[in-house]
Design goal:
126 residues, 6 helices, 18% strand, alpha+beta, 5-stranded mixed β-sheet, single chain
C-alpha cells in the first residue's frame, strides 16, 4: 500500500511510466477507462488509483475495465479525436494525449517486451 501511495503522490512522468509498465504487464494487461463526458477519457491501471480520484473529484464518471489489446483496437477503429489523461490526480493538471500518442506509448512498450508482437500484428495494430 505504501508503494501505491508513493505513486499516487509522485510527479506525472513517474505515474505515466508506471501506468504503461502495468497495462502492458502479462499479469495485468488491462486498464480502466473513465468517462466524465468532458471529451478527455481518464486512464488508470488499477482500482486503487481510480478510487482515490473518484473520492476526491465529486464527478459522475462512467467506468469500464478493458483488455489492453481491445483498448488499442477500440481507439484505432473509433476514428475519434479522443484525448486521454493517464492516472489523473485531483488538483493536478495532467497532460492530455491524443489517440496516436497513447497508442504509440503502449505499442512501443509491448513491442519492446517482444511477447505481444504476434497479437499486435494479428489485430492490425502495427
Amino acid at each position: 500500500m505504501i508503494a501505491k501511495q508513493k505513486i499516487q503522490t509522485s510527479e506525472y512522468q513517474k505515474r505515466e511510466r508506471n501506468f504503461i509498465k502495468t497495462v502492458t504487464s502479462e499479469s495485468t494487461f488491462q486498464l480502466i477507462v473513465g468517462n466524465d463526458k468532458s471529451g478527455t477519457l481518464m486512464l488508470w491501471q488499477d482500482e486503487y488509483y481510480m478510487e482515490e480520484y473518484l473520492k476526491s473529484s465529486g464527478k459522475d464518471i462512467i467506468l469500464s475495465k478493458i483488455d489492453t489489446i481491445e483498448f488499442l483496437k477500440f481507439i484505432k477503429l473509433s476514428n475519434s479525436n479522443h484525448h486521454f489523461s493517464i492516472h489523473p490526480v485531483k488538483g493536478e493538471k495532467a497532460p492530455t494525449l491524443s489517440v496516436d500518442e497513447i497508442s504509440k506509448k503502449i505499442i512501443e512498450k509491448l513491442e519492446s517486451d517482444g511477447d505481444y508482437y504476434d497479437s499486435l500484428r494479428e489485430n492490425n495494430l502495427l
